[in-house]
């Protein structure tokens, strides 16, 4: 669910960059499946996602460090990164709880709602009325969310609660992004990811213990797959590819995540969607594309 986005675009990205962008999104889309497969609690799975990835992220941060970053994260930037890591932990905790209680397609769509929430936030800060594309994105998002939330309530109240937790995760992700942007100009991407991960891991452990979840698993492979697939491979491929594409292309490719999650939910857990679910998902997917298109047009 969450990516450190460098918005500049390169004139001619090669097929390797596009393959990396697709591969990163595919790896992230399988994350909810690994959360379901883990025999620890959902928040505990988020803790292992971060903690098991730390050694690899540390090596990548050391490998990428540039001469102007020899001193690591400056004291002023570290405070913002640490608080961002706490919000990232809240984001993962809410999202993983939601994954355990709703359909994988819903979890993926609502978990990516942070970009739309950021658009709302930007309009509020700018104190201006939305443009046409922004208005269309907001209306599509509200209509799609209303349909999916209503359908979840029809299926089971627990499913609705799962959707709401995924939406809450989107709010936490917004605060994470706003804080992390303060350090992005001074810190390379891997050091930033390692530091925010280091700050967030103990928070997730504390939440898992407070909730009474089982922390120590009996089966480790889903947690290693979650850590390497989502936190290292997924994030790493996207960090590698993002700067070569416009915001619109990135937004469209991000929509492969819900599609893969829906397929995984169908194959692994027998989750099916009706025509009304498909309408709601299409509306939210369209809102994500329109939001990215508006972002690109407003540059």
Write a short abstract of this structure.
This protein is mostly helical. 78% of the residues lie in helices and 0% in strands.
What is the fold's blueprint, element by element?
Blueprint: H1 15-29, H2 31-37, H3 42-64, H4 75-99, H5 104-111, H6 114-126, H7 132-155, H8 157-184, H9 189-210, H10 221-242, H11 247-254, H12 256-269, H13 275-297
Share of β-strand residues: under 5%
Basic shape: globular
* Fraction of helical residues: over 70%
Number of strands: 0
- Oligomeric form: single chain
Q: Alpha-carbon distance between the termini? A: 25 Å
The overall number of domains is 1
Mean of the pLDDT scores? 78
Question: What is the radius of gyration computed over CA atoms, rounded to a whole number of angstroms?
Answer: 18 Å
Largest sheet: none
Could you name the ranges where pLDDT drops below 50 across 5 or more consecutive residues? 1-11, 67-71
Report the order of strands and helices: HHHHHHHHHHHHH
Which labels suit this protein?
single chain, 299 residues, mainly alpha, 0% strand, globular, disordered N terminus
Tell me about this structure.
The structure is a single chain. The chain is mainly α and 299 residues long. The protein has one domain (15-297). It is 78% helix and 0% strand. The protein has 13 helices and no strands. It has helices spanning 15-29, 31-37, 42-64, 75-99, 104-111, 114-126, 132-155, 157-184, 189-210, 221-242, 247-254, 256-269, 275-297. Helix 11 (247-254) packs antiparallel against helix 13. The longest helix has 28 residues, at 157-184.
């Amino acid at each position: 669910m969450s990516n450190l986005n460098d918005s500049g675009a390169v004139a001619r990205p090669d097929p390797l960059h596009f393959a990396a962008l697709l591969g990163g999104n595919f790896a992230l889309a399988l994350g909810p499946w690994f959360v379901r497969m883990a025999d620890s609690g959902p928040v505990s799975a988020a803790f292992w996602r971060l903690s098991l990835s730390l050694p690899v992220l540390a090596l990548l941060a050391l490998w990428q460090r540039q001469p102007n970053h020899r001193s690591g994260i400056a004291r002023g930037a570290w405070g913002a990164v640490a608080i961002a890591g706490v919000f990232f932990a809240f984001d993962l905790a809410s999202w993983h709880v939601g994954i355990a209680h709703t359909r994988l397609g819903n979890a993926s769509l609502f978990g990516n709602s942070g970009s739309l929430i950021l658009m709302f936030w930007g309009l509020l800060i700018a104190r201006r009325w939305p443009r046409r594309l922004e208005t269309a994105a907001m209306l599509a998002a509200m209509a799609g969310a209303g349909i999916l939330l209503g359908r979840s309530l029809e299926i089971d109240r627990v499913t609705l609660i799962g959707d709401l937790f995924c939406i809450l995760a989107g709010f936490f992700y917004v605060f994470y992004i706003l804080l992390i942007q303060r350090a992005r100009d001074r810190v390379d991407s891997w050091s930033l990811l390692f530091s925010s991960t280091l700050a967030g891991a103990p928070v997730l452990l504390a939440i898992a213990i407070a909730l009474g979840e089982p922390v120590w698993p009996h089966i480790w492979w889903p947690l290693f797959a979650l850590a390497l697939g989502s936190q290292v491979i997924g994030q790493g491929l996207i960090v590698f590819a993002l700067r070569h594409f416009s915001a619109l292309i990135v937004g469209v490719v991000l929509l492969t995540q819900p599609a893969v999650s829906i397929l995984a939910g169908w194959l692994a857990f027998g989750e099916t969607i009706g025509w009304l679910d498909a309408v709601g998902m299409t509306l939210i997917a369209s809102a994500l594309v329109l939001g990215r298109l508006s972002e690109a047009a407003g540059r």
